[in-house]
Structure formats: structure tokens, C-alpha cells
Amino acid sequence: MSSEPSRMVAAWDAPTRLFHWGLVVLIILAPITNKMGASTFYLHKINGYMILSLILYRVIWGFVGGTTARFSTFVRPFGAIGYFVDLVRNRPRHFLGHNPLGGLMVLALMAAAAGQALFGLMTLDDIPATIEGPFASKVAESTAEWVSVWHRRGFRIILALVALHVLANLFYTFVKKDNLIRPMVTGVKPAGPYEDVQANQPGSLGKAALCLALSMVIVFGSVWTFGSAPFR
Fold first, then answer.
1. Fewest CB atoms within 10 A around its CB: which of 74, 159, 197, 220?
2. Total-model pTM
3. What H or E segment, with its residue span, contains residue 10?
């Protein structure tokens, strides 16, 4: 039996990994900045703008980024059904990037985070106007009140999705013996007969920086131009 170490191949490029862990940090900071008080509530607003910027960046990166980051590689809604059936029947299937179920989870988390941040733009509150979203005064009061309710509930939805995501990763790591967390840190996985691609062609950091800059200009520029007190 050969004691040669497994050959490693590129799985996730640096821009995709930075997006992943950056979004984790911002989601953790969201409730913290929300509880810091009215005088520093602008930090919660900026946190929300950064979440929107990252989500928009990831959407753009899903078309121009590395192979495993592209939506065309991992968004397979109908394939998720067959993958789930094979998973239940203990028929191993391996993917270098997201498996079909994992791809749906990525979309769900992105949609939930984006929805939460967008609702925050229109949220009302009874105490100082500084804690209102920058577009709260731009929509009907009934709309702002409805959005405010769902902005408060939305974080629980995100927590539920995050819990499901973590449990799935623990299941793959300890039951299926397929560690999905380590490659999102290191960027590499052992070579193998993967169904999607055999090795990732990474996107460049320069292109990623341009995509992020464009996303931030769109988000921050919009709230600065059209919003009320966006940074207070």
C-alpha cells in the first residue's frame, strides 16, 4: 500500500473564500451593532450596506469568478433531487465545489441575507429617527411597518439557515468523512473523480477587487444619493 500523500487540487479561489468568511463576520456583527445604542446605530447601517455589497459582489462573481464559484457549475435545482435520493441511499457522489444541495443552501443564505439587509433600508422604529432605515420615509408607512416586522423576524430565519448549514457540514465531516470546511479555509482538496470539475481555475484578485469596488459604489452610492441620513 502506497504511503504517498494525496495530490491536492485547487477547489476555492481566494476571492470566494474571503466572501464566505467576510459574510460570516458581518452576520455576527449585525445583532451586535443593533444593540449598541442610537448614538452608534450608524455602524449597524454600514454593516447592512456591507452585507448588500458582498451579496452583490458574489452575484457578479458567480458569472466571472473561478470555476467552482460560477453559478453555472453548482446551481442545479433539479439535480438536487437526484443527489438527495443518492445521499439517502448512501450512494457516494463527490463534487469539487458545491454539491447540488449545497448550491441551493448557498442561494438560500444569500437571498435571506440580502432580504434582511434590503428590509433594513426601509425599517421604521418608534424611538429616534436616526435608527430608521434610509428609505423608510420614501415608502408608504404601511409598507415600512410591514418591512420592519419582517426585518425583526428575518434574523431568526438566517439563524435557522446557518444552523442547517453548520449541521450539514458536520454531517459530511464526521459521517461521510468529507470535510467541507477545511477547503473553504485552505482552498484545496484531494484530487478525485469529481462530477463537476477536476480542478478549479481561480478568478484573479484584481478582477475580484474591481467587482467588489463596483458593488460598493452601487450600494453606498445609492443610499448616499437617494436615502435619508444614511450614515447617521
1. 159
2. 0.93
3. strand 8-10
Strand partners of residue 9:
189
Q: Count of CB atoms within 10 A of residue 88's CB?
A: 8
Predicted pLDDT at 2: 44
Checking 38-46 for CB contacts under 8 A at 24+ apart, the result is 38/127, 38/128, 38/130, 38/131, 41/130, 41/131, 42/130, 42/231, 42/232, 45/120, 45/133, 45/134, 45/230, 45/231, 46/231
Q: What's the CATH number where 40 sits?
A: 1.20.950
The DSSP code for 190 is: E
Close Cβ partners of 192 (under 8 Å, ≥ 6 residues apart):
94, 96
Burial classification of residue 203, based on how many CB atoms lie within 10 Å of its CB (0-12 exposed, 13-18 middle, 19 or more buried) = buried
E strand map for 23-78: none
130 — pLDDT class (breaks 50, 70, 90): low
Q: What pairs with residue 190 in β-bridges?
A: 8
| In-domain check, residue 4 | no
**How many domains is the chain partitioned into structurally?**
1
